[in-house]
């Protein structure tokens, strides 16, 4: 009996998965706009976020019918975050302002699991531009600033739930400008 139930469940699951429509087809374009929660940058005691992490990504479907109903998309990514570390004592303050700007290229594999839900995972290769500026009123000579940049990579997984044919709610987890990005997606 146990084998029959497992076989029926597997058959039902296979049928329901194969019945889903591909949510990103070849030539379709999607724009994601998100706000990050749980920044991967500058966390700990004394840090405050002056601007929450924001991101935008654009994707174009380039290949259909991968593993039956899956698809592949490629596109670009922009992310921005700003943080401040501040220390106050004896009526004065001193600290640093940090900004991060990430630009990258992404490749995603989409596989529909539930109707109206575009589930995907992928990799990003990008460039992170970081700048820091010292501030404070304790000593007027505090005016140090620096910038740096380097290559970064990221794995991510996400989903877009389509309320209409062109409008969706979006959520992504992974390493980038934030651990979790929530926002909207628009098919163009």
UniProtKB/TrEMBL annotation:
Keywords: Signal
Domain of life per record: Bacteria
Residues spanning the signal sequence: 1-19
Keyword flag Repeat: no
UniProt cross-references to Pfam families, sorted A to Z: OMP_b-brl (PF13505)
Residue ranges annotated for the Outer membrane protein beta-barrel domain, each copy included: 8-175
SUPFAM superfamilies in UniProt: OMPA-like
InterPro entries the record matches: Beta-barrel_OMP (IPR027385), OMP/PagP_B-barrel (IPR011250)
The protein, known as: Outer membrane protein beta-barrel domain-containing protein
Biological classification of the source: Bacteria, Pseudomonadati, Bacteroidota, Bacteroidia, Bacteroidales
């Amino acid at each position: 009996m146990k084998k029959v139930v497992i076989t029926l469940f597997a058959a039902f699951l296979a049928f329901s998965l194969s019945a889903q429509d591909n949510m990103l087809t070849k030539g379709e374009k999607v724009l994601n706009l998100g706000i990050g929660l749980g920044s991967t940058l500058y966390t700990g005691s004394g840090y405050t976020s002056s601007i929450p992490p924001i991101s935008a990504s654009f994707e174009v479907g380039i290949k259909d019918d991968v593993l039956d109903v899956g698809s592949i998309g490629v596109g670009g990514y922009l992310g921005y975050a700003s943080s401040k570390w501040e220390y106050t004592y004896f009526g004065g303050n001193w600290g640093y302002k940090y900004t991060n700007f990430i630009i990258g290229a992404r490749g995603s594999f989409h596989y529909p699991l539930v109707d109206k839900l575009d589930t995907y995972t992928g990799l990003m290769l990008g460039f992170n531009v970081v700048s820091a500026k010292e501030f404070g009123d304790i000593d007027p000579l505090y005016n140090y600033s620096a910038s740096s940049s380097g290559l970064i990579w990221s794995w991510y997984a996400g989903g877009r739930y389509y309320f209409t044919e062109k409008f969706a709610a979006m959520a992504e987890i992974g390493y980038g400008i934030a651990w979790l990005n929530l926002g909207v997606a628009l098919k163009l």
